[in-house]
Amino acid sequence: MRRVLSICSLLLVLSCKSQPVLPESDSVKKTLEYLASDELEGRNTGSKGIEKAAVYIEEFFKKHKVKPYFKTYRDSFNIQDVVGYNIVGFIEGNDTKLKDEFVILGAHYDHIGIVEGVNGDTIANGANDDASGTVAVMEWAKYFAKSKSNKRSILFTLFSAEEMGLKGSEHLAERLKKMNIDLYTMINFEMIGVPRNFGKKLSYITGYKKSNIAEKLNTYAGESLVGFLPQAQKYKLFKRSDNFPFFNKFKVPAHAISTFDFTNFDYYHHVDDETDKMDFNHMTNFINKMIPAIEGMTNSMSKEIKMNNE
After folding, report:
1. Does pLDDT of 215 surpass 80?
2. Residue 283 lies in a domain
3. CB atoms within 10 A of CB 76
4. Are the beta carbons of 115 and 34 closer than 8 angstroms?
5. Is residue 28 over pLDDT 50?
């Protein structure tokens, strides 16, 4: 009996070790507090602050066994005399055939740096824009590195130079296109640090009518997570975020998801876009609810997400 109990205990321990832990608010808060700290001086592309952010993300990926897709995590490019670099993590799919198909989850980790002062504060910390999306992508990378539950391969892409006109995502999209990767879908996460008003869907997706991705993500999640926002169409947000270069190059479903809806956050490109304005319970809830949606997208046996004929 003692031997049976020992074997059962061992199996229980091994089972526990193999189970990924869902992202927790303490981890979300810790990462965002650093990325949006004054030490990073607003993470302007080419600055010392964004170099610190890049190193932090690289160390996070290393710690959680997220491999670099290229020789290193960095995808470097030049904008005149400014050197920028995207950070690209990689988790290979576990299916022998589907692993050759790719899903990209992205966000931009740069912001606008030092700006005109407000009450003596000159650092545009960019907590919501877009440290929030960056943290989400990092947490998903950590989760899937542990769960290994993705049949398709996933690239976790953190872009710089978004604030300079989507230059980082343009560079990476072009590079991956030249490599002829089989890109299935791309989702960019932009400003997910504050919740929408009561009664609204948790998030919305840009380019809603261009594909059936919202419908499919909601089906995979088992609830209505992603909806339509009229202002997204009005302000042409589909073309204003890092999803757009991938749509341009690959002609596949490539969208941005956000919870910022023009009514729930007053500090866009402002020095008060700081950590204390973020809702970490909301962020953690959003990150966790998206996991089954991402798993459905990465694990469907056929390419169920398709472009619509507009």
Report:
1. yes
2. yes
3. 13
4. no
5. yes
